[in-house]
Amino acid sequence: MKRKVVSTLLCAAMVSTMLVGCGGGADNAASGDAAATEEGGDAAEGGTITVGFSQVGAESDWRTANSESMKSTFSEENGYELIFDDAQQKQENQITAIRNFIQQEVDYIVLAPVTETGWDTVLQEAKDADIPVIIVDRMVDVSDDSLYTAWVGSNFELEGKKACAWLNAYAEAKGMDEINIVDIQGTIGASAQIGRTKGLEDAAAEYGWNILAMQTGEFTQAKGQEVMESMLKQYDNINVVYCENDNEAFGAIDAIEAAGKTVGPDGDILVMSFDTTKAGITDTLDGKIICNTECNPLHGPRVEEIIKKLEAGEEVEKQAYVEEGIFAHGGDVAEVEIDGEKFEVTEVTQEVIDARAY
Ligand code: AHR
């Protein structure tokens, strides 16, 4: 079902974006009031809502969980037609997908952008076609915020800060006198990479850590392993590897063990990670991953809430961060403090793993 009149009015409402106080760093709201008043939404009418979702790819366990969350939420039985496009980690594929969605006159475009920049032109095309765009997971860096309706995702820089605050506290507790760290980065230019790398760089400057090398592992296990193998050949004094997601950590652990070194609290190298997938925190229980900072992939219901609000003509937060925790092996660090705010650290147990949905 297409709603040209609704979308036009919605965009008009968005231009006069209101400022509201929102939790978790959200600071703007877009209103769909005009849409509801004039026509009512498709959900209210009981019609099918067509959603075009441009997904980054299938590079990680996190991404698989994210795709499943979107597919199970935007199902036929829930009243949606989902057009799912896997971009295989290529921005050009995402741009093509968005153009196809515009041609198909979908009701909403949902974009999980591979990198932050390069979206202005295609998002302007979506705006010209009066199709609301919801950004999910990573962020876009656009010259005009009205090119998207709302964003929901993670505070990646805070994730990096949490991980590094934990490492600093752990190093103090264990009397580690030197941190010689390598960073297996995510896809360069992705918000998840930018934020996590910045968290590390800032902490290294503050605490005097030596960053020996930084190289992208593209968020995949295979590349994580390859990069770790090469770093181990170049440096024999690595005592921490900061992997920017779980799959890179799995690859790094394989490379370290294949090189005859050990991981874990009593081993040669501490492995840090992000995501806290079930497999990731299973390695955390074993100590193979010493600290795992959460990045929550279950965005389907969050995006649906935005769409439902827009359909009902209600305001939506322009930007909303999801709440995420810190998970560690052992209880050496109970909490960390970042910019005056305290964050509890969860010690991973079998119960924690059993409760993990992805
Ligand atoms: O943008 C979220 C990141 O992308 C996750 O950490 C990673 O696993 C995924 O590929």
What does this protein look like?
With 358 residues, the chain is α/β, with parallel strands linked by helices. The chain has helices at 4-15, 33-38, 42-45, 61-73, 91-103, 120-128, 156-174, 191-207, 221-234, 246-258, 278-286, 300-311, 350-355; strands spanning 18-19, 28-31, 49-55, 80-86, 108-111, 133-137, 150-153, 180-185, 210-216, 240-243, 270-275, 291-294, 315-317, 319-321, 326-328, 335-338, 341-347. It is built from 13 helices and 17 strands. The strands form 3 sheets. The chain has an 8-stranded mixed β-sheet, sandwiched between helices. Strands 4-3-5-6-7-14 form a 6-stranded parallel β-sheet, sandwiched between helices. A 3-stranded antiparallel β-sheet has the order 1-2-13. α5 (91-103) runs parallel beside α6. It binds alpha-L-arabinofuranose.
| Radius of gyration, taken over Cα atoms and rounded to an integer in Å | 21 Å
Give the biggest beta sheet: 8 strands, mixed
Low-confidence stretches: 1-41
Strand order of the largest sheet: 9-8-10-11-12-15-17-16
Structural class based on helices, strands and sheet pairing: alpha/beta
The portion of residues forming beta strands comes to 15-25%
Shape: elongated
Q: Identify the quaternary structure here.
A: single chain
Give the bound compounds.
Answer: alpha-L-arabinofuranose
Mean pLDDT score, rounded?
Answer: 90
User: What portion of residues is helical?
Assistant: 40-55%
Alpha plus pi helix count: 13
SSE order: HEEHHEHEHEHEEHEHEHEHEHEHEEEEEH
Number of strands: 17
Measure the end-to-end span.
33 Å
